[in-house]
Structure formats: structure tokens, C-alpha cells
Specification:
Blueprint lengths: L51 E3 L9 E4 L5 E4 H20 L1 H18 L1 H20 L18 H34 L3 E2 L2 E2 L12 H16 L1 H20 L11 H4 L6 H37 L5 H21 L1 H26 L2 H23 L7 H28 L6 H32 L4 H4 L5 H6 L5 H31 L8 H61 L8 E3 L2
Parallel strand pairs: 1-6
Antiparallel strand pairs: 2-3, 4-5
Helix pairs in contact: 1-8, 1-17, 2-12, 2-17, 3-6, 3-12, 3-13, 3-17, 4-5, 4-8, 4-10, 4-12, 4-13, 4-16, 5-6, 5-11, 5-13, 6-12, 6-13, 6-17, 8-9, 8-12, 8-16, 8-17, 9-10, 9-16, 9-17, 10-16, 11-13, 12-16, 12-17, 16-17
GO molecular function, one term: transmembrane transporter activity
Protein name: Betaine/carnitine transporter, BCCT family
Keywords: Cell membrane, Membrane, Transmembrane, Transmembrane helix, Transport
């Protein structure tokens, strides 16, 4: 005859359970037997099949403060309060003292990227090597959610959400400007003044050689949009998915560090990690939203002659934040997923249009040639030492890595939420390889077309501001008004999908891991993303946006390196679990 513990009292942590033993049926979020459930909170699915569920006395939401009268809220006290107060104070200071803070943001960005460029580059290499190693290793066969778990979304819907959340606005903004900028700098070659290189060419450039400059420019661009950034996202997403869906811990960044800190993750070490995740996510999103506003207003000015002012950018951010708020209230399935699929279709249509009416053969052959150039140059571009291309390495690469890392809590958690049921190998191939190839095709199409136009004698793209270069390129193709309008809509919808999915993620972290907290909290975070973007635009423009992205990305890089260790340890435990005879669908309870 089996025995059950008193209600609410967990068995000791070293209890493993046996098939058919009711003591084995423990909750995947808390590790406790038969806990009471909150009808207002959507629970994470229980692992399906034998997994190493981590038994812990912590109960999700136990540190939360709840209110149900005037405004419903359910917040994790230390994380929400410290994050919200920090963001409110920062926003107020930036709006009150824009002229004083503008130069500060510029110097902050330069200090972080110049002094820590080596650290960002080394960390990026670690993330890529870990991801590729897991794809090739036996650990890649482990399924997120348990051996019997099935995917929650179709392959098409999954890919759409991965891509829209990951890089939408950035591809629209830099798809033309970055390849063209690298090409121009490479063609000019190194420029030395007073013994210091002042040019922006990658590596040693390709002075006077148009073909070599083109290949080097595309290799440098793909380096910034290929394996390295997607590996950053993959590390965070895999860590979150593993410890939530297989280990039974709350879906927050602190859970990833259970192998390192143990039960201490429920205290201040965990609070610090989650607060850093909230701040990195919000400032990373604000950077992208500000860039999107810059380009959208520039597009409206290009098409309709509207003047791009701080007021027009502010109004645009407010309007789009309102749309994003409506989407975030609807949730992942009804709001984010549908917008992502619409955006993917529009992006594919614009991409195919440029391929068909642009230099088609050059784009097709350039795709494979650019992949070859990327393979040839990836090692020297990944090398953090012994280089003299400081402007490129610090101003481009270090900034990008910090930006991707600041985005990684948001994108990683969002990817984790929609990736249950995939094996680690499927997950990493989808998150690492497929988006990288799409980015190569996008950059080859838009950047390659702009380079071809420039070589043909058209200087309009090169002479235009960064936010206008896409529209200048489209002006040399048929149906300019239509394609430019589609480009603006893409920027706006990417803006919305980033804002709404980011708000869902921040809300989950600030609610202590509850993935369906009250709607007013989602509205709060969505609104504050827009306010921070407005404050940064008014307090220093693009420089301020970039400064906050790199400054929050720096400390979070340390967090991600710790997550790499936790991933390997967690997957090895899952591998042992699969090889051991154990219980069935309920999973195996462990204390490690």
C-alpha cells in the first residue's frame, strides 16, 4: 500500500518515485506533490516521458504580491519593483536633461565597445562553438519537453515567429546600408592618420579591387547577421526551454542557474539575474524600436514629403505602441503568431520582387559566392587580437554582439515558449542554420543590389542617410511607391511584433515565472518600452539608443557564459535519464 504525504508537504528531495507510485506524480513547476493550482495562471506543461525533474521547495509565485480590486496585478516583488523604479528614474532623467545626457551616451557607447570588444568577440565564439557542438553530439537527440512531447506549433508558424522576433527591424534598417558601407570602406582601403587607422574597413580592406571589396563587405555583413547572433539567441532559448520543460522549473532566467547556485536562485542571486534580464530586454527593445521609428518616418518623408522630426517619431512610436498593446493583450496564439505570419509573407514578397526585377543572376550567384567569402573570412573576423581595424571591430562587431545579447532574454524566452516538442538538434538547426541562411539571402539581395547600383554610377544610395538608403535603392526599381510603402509597413509590423512579444517576456520574468499574468501588467511593460524609446530618441538619438544596448549587454554577457555551463550539465543529466530504466510519462524526480 502506497502512502501520500500530508497536503502541501513535499517528499524529501532525494525521493525518486516508482512507476505507479502516486508520490512520483509531482508538479513540474514546484516539484511538490498535489499543489493547489491558480485558475488564473496558465501552467507550463508537465514533462512527457522520463526527464530529470528538479525537486525544489520553491513554489512559483510564492514571492509575488497580488491585487484584484481596482487593477489586477500579480508581480514578483523584488524583481518588478527594482526593475520598474530603475526604468522610471532613467526615463525621467533622460527626458528632463536631454542636452546633458546626449554627450554622456556617446562616451558610454565608445568606452564599452572599445575596452570590451575582445570580451564580446570571445563570448560570441563560445556560443557558436557550443551550438555547433550540440548539433553534432548525442545530446542533440534530447527532446525539449520530454521524450514523448509533441510540437505546439506547425513548422511554418514556428519559423515565422522565430524570424519576426529575432531580427526584423534590424534587417530592414541595415539590409542596404551595412553591405554598402562595408563595400565603400573596403574599396578605399586602410587610412592611417598619426599612426592610427581612421577608416571603417573590415580587416585590411581591398583597396581598388571591386570584386574583392564586394566579397569582403558581404562576408563582414553575414558575420554580423549569421551564426554568431543566432547562436546567442539559441543559447538563451535552449537553456530556458530545457530547465522549464524538462526540469520543471519556472520559465525565468534564474532557473537556468540552478546547477550553479542551487536553492539560492530563489533569493538575491536569482533576483539580480532576472532584473538584469528585464533591463537588458527593455533597453535592447527600445534600441530597435527607436531605429524602426527613424526608418519609418524617413520612409514617410521619402514617399509623401513629410518632415522627419522628433515630434513625428514620437507620435509614430505612440501609435505603434498602442497597436502592440492590443496584440499583447490578445496573447501569443491570436496576436503575436498572426502578425508574425503576415510579416513573413510580406517580407518574402518584397524579397522575391527585388530578386526578380533587380540583378537576378548576380543575386543568385552572389548568394553562394557570399557564403564562400563568409567561410573564408569567419576566422579572421572572429579573432579578437592582433588586429588594427579598430573602428570596424569596435563600432560594428562589438556593438552588434552587445545588441544581440541585450535582445537575447526577450528573443530567447520567446523562442523557448514556442519551441516545446523539438529535439535539441532540430531546435538548434532551426534557430541557428535556417535564419542565418535567410539573413544571407536578404543581405545578398538588398545589399548586393545597392552595391550593383553604385558600381553602375548611381550615387543616391551612398549619399543618403542610413534610414533612407533602403528607399533610395527601391527608387531605382519598378513600382517604387508600392515597394517603398511595403517596406514601411514591414518596419512597422516588425516594430509591433518585437514590442508585443518582448512585453510578454518581460511580464513573465517580472511575474516570477507566471506565463499568463494579469493583462494590465502586459500593458504596463508595453507602454514603458515605448516611453523608453521616446526618451532615448529625445535624449541623444541613435547614439543614446546604441549606448544603452551595449551597456546592458556587457554584464549580461557574463550571465550567458554561465548559462553555457548550465546547458551542458543539464543535457548530460537528461542523457543519463534516458539511458536509465525509470518511470514513464510522469518523469523522474531528482535533487540535482
Amino acid at each position: 500500500m502506497t502512502q501520500t504525504p500530508p497536503p502541501g508537504k513535499p517528499f524529501r528531495k532525494d525521493h525518486k518515485g516508482r512507476p505507479g507510485d502516486p508520490r512520483h506524480e509531482r508538479n513540474a513547476l514546484t516539484g511538490q506533490h498535489a499543489p493547489e493550482t491558480d485558475a488564473d495562471v496558465e501552467a507550463l506543461p508537465v514533462p512527457e516521458g522520463p526527464t530529470e525533474i528538479i525537486s525544489t521547495d520553491y513554489e512559483i509565485g510564492q514571492d509575488n504580491i497580488e491585487g484584484r480590486k481596482l487593477v489586477a496585478f500579480d508581480i514578483h516583488n523584488p524583481v518588478f519593483m527594482f526593475s520598474a523604479v530603475t526604468i522610471v528614474l532613467f526615463t525621467a532623467a533622460t527626458l528632463l536633461f536631454p542636452t546633458q545626457l546626449g554627450p554622456f551616451f556617446g562616451s558610454l557607447r565608445d568606452i564599452v565597445t572599445s575596452r570590451f570588444d575582445w570580451f564580446f568577440i570571445i563570448a560570441g565564439n563560445v556560443f557558436v562553438l557550443l551550438s555547433l557542438g550540440l548539433i553534432l553530439s548525442p545530446l542533440g537527440s534530447i527532446r525539449l519537453g520530454g521524450p514523448q512531447a509533441t510540437p505546439d506549433f506547425t513548422l511554418t508558424g514556428w519559423f515565422a515567429m522565430l524570424f519576426a522576433a529575432g531580427m526584423g527591424i534590424g534587417l530592414m534598417f541595415y539590409g542596404v546600408s551595412e553591405p554598402l558601407g562595408h563595400f565603400t570602406a573596403s574599396l578605399g582601403g586602410p587610412v592611417v592618420e598619426n599612426g592610427v587607422r581612421t577608416d571603417w574597413a573590415p580587416l585590411d580592406g581591398a583597396v581598388g579591387d571591386e570584386l574583392a571589396a564586394r566579397r569582403l563587405a558581404m562576408a563582414a555583413t553575414i558575420f554580423h547577421w549569421g551564426l554568431h547572433p543566432w547562436a546567442i539567441y539559441a543559447v538563451v532559448a535552449l537553456a530556458l526551454a530545457l530547465f522549464a520543460y524538462n526540469k520543471g522549473l519556472p520559465l525565468t532566467l534564474r532557473s537556468v542557474f540552478y546547477p550553479i547556485f542551487g536553492e539560492r536562485i530563489w533569493g538575491w542571486p536569482g533576483h539580480v539575474i532576472d532584473v538584469m534580464a528585464v533591463l537588458a530586454t527593455l533597453f535592447g527593445l527600445a534600441t530597435s524600436l527607436g531605429i524602426g521609428a527613424e526608418q519609418a518616418t524617413a520612409g514617410f518623408g521619402f514617399l509623401f514629403g513629410w518632415t522627419a522630426t522628433d515630434t513625428s517619431k514620437t507620435v509614430l512610436i505612440i501609435l505603434i505602441t498602442a497597436v502592440a498593446t492590443g496584440s499583447v493583450v490578445m496573447g501569443v496564439e491570436k496576436g503575436v503568431k498572426r502578425l508574425s505570419e503576415i510579416n513573413m509573407v510580406m517580407a518574402i514578397i518584397l524579397l522575391l520582387f527585388v530578386i526578380l526585377v533587380g540583378p537576378t543572376w548576380q543575386i543568385i550567384t552572389g548568394f553562394f559566392g557570399n557564403l564562400g567569402a563568409y567561410a573564408t573570412n569567419i576566422l579572421p573576423l572572429s579573432n579578437p587580437f592582433g588586429r588594427d581595424d579598430d573602428n570596424f571591430r569596435q563600432g560594428w562587431t562589438a556593438f552588434y554582439w552587445a545588441w544581440w545579447i541585450s535582445w537575447s532574454p526577450f528573443v530567447g524566452m520567446f523562442i523557448a515558449r514556442v519551441s516545446r516538442g523539438r529535439t535539441v538538434r532540430q531546435f538548434l538547426i532551426a534557430v541557428l542554420i535556417v535564419p542565418s541562411l535567410i539573413s544571407v539571402l536578404w543581405m545578398t539581395t538588398f545589399g548586393g543590389t545597392a552595391i550593383s547600383l553604385t558600381l553602375a554610377g548611381f550615387s543616391g544610395v551612398t549619399d543618403a542617410a542610413l534610414e533612407l538608403q533602403l528607399f533610395q535603392m527601391l527608387s531605382q526599381l519598378p513600382l517604387t511607391a508600392i515597394t517603398s510603402f511595403v517596406g514601411i509597413v514591414l518596419v512597422i509590423v516588425f516594430f509591433v511584433t518585437s514590442s508585443d512579444s518582448g512585453s510578454l517576456v518581460i511580464d513573465t520574468i517580472a511575474a516570477g515565472g507566471k506565463i499568463n499574468a494579469p493583462v494590465p501588467q502586459r500593458i504596463f511593460w508595453c507602454s514603458f518600452e515605448g516611453l523608453v524609446a521616446i526618451a532615448l530618441l529625445l535624449g541623444g538619438g541613435l547614439t543614446a539608443l546604441q549606448a544603452m544596448a551595449v551597456s546592458t549587454g556587457l554584464p549580461f554577457t557574463v550571465v550567458l557564459l554561465g548559462a553555457c555551463f548550465a546547458i551542458v550539465k543539464g543535457l548530460m543529466a537528461e542523457r543519463r535519464e534516458l539511458l536509465m530504466p525509470g518511470p514513464g510519462a510522469g518523469g523522474r524526480v531528482s535533487s540535482s
